[in-house]
Amino acid sequence: MAISRLGFLSLLLLVLLRAFASLPTQAAARGGSDSSGIDNGKHGAFSRILLEDNPEITEEMTRGYMSNSELENAIQGFGNKCSNVSRIYSIGRSVNGSPLWVIEVSDKPGQKEAEPAFKFIGNVHGDEPVGREVLMQLAYWLCDNYLKDPLATLIVENMHLHILPTMNPDGFALRRRGNANNIDLNRDFPDQFFPINDEISFRQPETRAIINWIKQEHFTASASLHGGALVANYPWDGSRDKRKQYYGCPDDKTFRYMASVYSQSHYNMSLSKEFKGGITNGALWYPIYGGMQDWNYIHGGCFELTLEISDLKWPKASELLVIWEQNKMSMLNLVASLVKLVCGLRHRVLPSSFCTRVWIIYWYLTSCDAGVHGRIFASDSGRPIPGSLMVKGIDSKISASRTLGDYHRMLTPGETYEVVASMEGFRPRSTRIVLEQEAMNLDFILDPDGQKKPLHNDCGCHCDDDVGGKPFLIRESHLWLYLLVLFVLLALYLLSKRRRTASKLAAHRIPLKRPVAV
Predict the structure, then answer these.
(1) Residue 10 confidence (pLDDT) above 80
(2) Of the residues 217, 308, 415, 438, which is catalytic?
(3) Is 308 annotated as catalytic?
(4) Is 40 exposed, middle or buried (0-12, 13-18, 19+ CB in 10 A)?
(5) Model confidence pTM above 0.85
(6) Hey, what domains does the chain have and what are their CATH numbers?
């Protein structure tokens, strides 16, 4: 079908934008962050009281916020309205017996798939209620825009998103930071530096619910929403000697990348004058012990950020929609960074709308998906196995799922990695990769009897199994996509030219019509 010159120029403009997007950006445009990306600690005095209850919470301030019963009704109502892409389940109860409801958003909710899983947790502190409101907005946006918006469709169809709007309903009802036992839930997890008591049974019921949840689900990444500042915080949250200092975890570079994805997508977080680039290492900001994000990373292999999404802990209810809009793209981009795009778009039928197709191509060209994904199989049976994945030089291990053997490892793009898969009773296998600006799909086949098998990935690419050899470069998909775009541009140009010629020849019979912008 022929296309107007306006459509042709629009597509050409998108390609040009892609070219400009690849050019280096000055640090000033990203809030003055230096090239290392490491926060130097020169924030100036931080005046907000993050660690204390706010004694001035009045009825006027709470007006417009959902009560616990209203929130529960909203969650159940969402489940009824959006049952085709969601399920509602509880992971436990609070001290006072309130259920901790979770919304799972997926095109196959409740089913086990070889797809990454992400979780959002809100209202960890009772006096920081913005997260519970924003997370409900996120759930409804995905439901309302599924099959209409490409990004919503991409998330729903390629991953499992779990949303816990409130972890601390009792603290919210009491208008205080801690739970009903006045315990700060973000100090209640077993700590790596100071394990006073690692017995899970002594933890608060809300904490135990999160711990059991992480053990049951195979989460790749996570974020908890807080209030009182505007910054993306990443591990470690504390240091061995309790000093306030930069204390990075083994995946420090990847966590800085994830935090930057959120900050750079935000309305103004990256412009912060207190935090370079709108991100900070937890131990450098203020050390805490027993925090949830460190426990997630150590014990769940789950890359969690702590997101401070509003300057005020309890802003006016009239500002909630503005805060949602300011955080919307950050939340969507952070979740979408887990989606496997390299092979997914090759086999997916694009929507019929021309504008939608153009938007998806542009989004694909300009987006970064950080990590390596795949499955681990046994060569003798061909069945998936729950092996482990290590990256040499990074002292952190993640496990594949027990049912499907799938793993999803967050990594910083633009780096060379040596990836090793292993499992007791099998020979470990390794390969060296160069991770470009998209996720890599990489399957491992482990031999129990010592016979060497080739390494495969599900994009039909061949990987170098010789660690001493040349790094494996995955450029095939990039080249294929650029050739496709060039072919489409050429075809559209020829069609447009043919249409103009035909129109001139038929001018004496059919009056010319102007293209209509819709």
Answers:
(1) no
(2) 308
(3) yes
(4) exposed
(5) no
(6) 1-30+340-365+477-518 (no CATH), 33-336 (3.40.630.10), 370-473 (2.60.40.1120)
